[in-house]
Amino acid sequence: MRPTKDKVIGAIQSTGLVPLYYHADVEIARHALEAAYLGGVRVFEFANRGANAFEVFQELVKDSRKFHDLYLGIGTVMNAESARKFIDAGAHFVVSPIFKNEIAQVCDRERVLWIPGCATMTEIVTASDAGAEIIKIFPGSVLGPGFVSSVLPILPNLKLMPTGGVEPDEKNLSAWFKAGVFCVGMGSQLFTPDLVQSKNWKAIADKIEQTLRMIKDIRLS
């Protein structure tokens, strides 16, 4: 049974982190997913960035079933057809780098959490009006925490998730969370090429655990 949107949102809120990752090798993708879970992650975004992304995702859906409290989503979704395909394959949520109303309609019909990417106030309001409960601020490296702190006084009920430009260090995370973000998205900063190439999954799990601890401390401060 597909989890409700509220359950996925609750899991995101509990950790404040949505890791995202893609690899064409299903075994590496499996290890990355498991390392994230062992590090404390309960929501994982697999990116639709390669020719065989769908096939790898199908295998991850099977593997994720051993983690009863893990929610697995698909990212880099660019159209309604892809959204429908991955939802049918078992995606618990859908993330896009763009706002596109046709994706909103598919996710609304299937009652699946949809996180569109936005870079302007107009896009943010349009996405919120279309039913987006969490909005991805992208690219975060360009917009920065100042953008978030400027938006939220006008639209205080938004749940914003910057992706790109988020680093697993206290100074960077503090800037984002002090600005008022709901959560952050991170990819290559957690699954660094050197650790993946050396298959040091323990180090990746440790890095994620440390990042989650920093987020928790920042939120409590």
Could you characterize the architecture of this molecule?
With 221 residues, the protein is an alpha/beta fold. It has one domain (5-208): Aldolase class I (TIM Barrel), CATH 3.20.20.70. The chain has 10 helices and 9 strands. The chain has helices at 5-15, 26-38, 53-64, 80-89, 101-110, 121-129, 140-151, 170-179, 193-197, 201-220; strands spanning 17-21, 43-47, 71-75, 93-95, 113-115, 117-118, 135-137, 160-162, 184-186. A 4-stranded parallel beta sheet has the order 3-2-1-9. The chain has a 3-stranded parallel beta sheet with strand order 6-7-8. The longest helix is centred in the last third of the chain and has 20 residues, at 201-220.
Topology, pairings included?
Blueprint: H1 5-15, E1 17-21, H2 26-38, E2 43-47, H3 53-64, E3 71-75, H4 80-89, E4 93-95, H5 101-110, E5 113-115, E6 117-118, H6 121-129, E7 135-137, H7 140-151, E8 160-162, H8 170-179, E9 184-186, H9 193-197, H10 201-220
Parallel strand pairs: 1-2, 1-9, 2-3, 4-5, 6-7, 7-8
Helix pairs in contact: 2-3, 2-10, 4-5, 7-8, 8-10
Secondary-structure-based class equals alpha/beta
- State the CATH superfamily name: Aldolase class I
CATH class descriptor name: Alpha Beta
Which architecture per CATH?
Answer: Alpha-Beta Barrel
Q: Please compute the radius of gyration using only Cα atoms.
A: 16 Å
Oligomeric state, counting identical vs distinct chains? single chain
Strand order of the largest sheet: 3-2-1-9
The termini sit apart by: 38 Å
Here the CATH topology equals TIM Barrel
Provide the number of structural domains. Answer: 1
- What low-confidence regions span 5 or more consecutive residues with pLDDT below 50? none
How helical, in percent, are the residues? 40-55%
Describe the largest sheet.
Answer: 4 strands, parallel
By DSSP (H or I, 4+ residues per run), the number of helices equals 10
Query: Number of DSSP strands?
Result: 9
Estimate the mean pLDDT confidence.
97
SSE topology string: HEHEHEHEHEEHEHEHEHH
Q: Beta-strand percentage?
A: 5-15%
General shape: globular
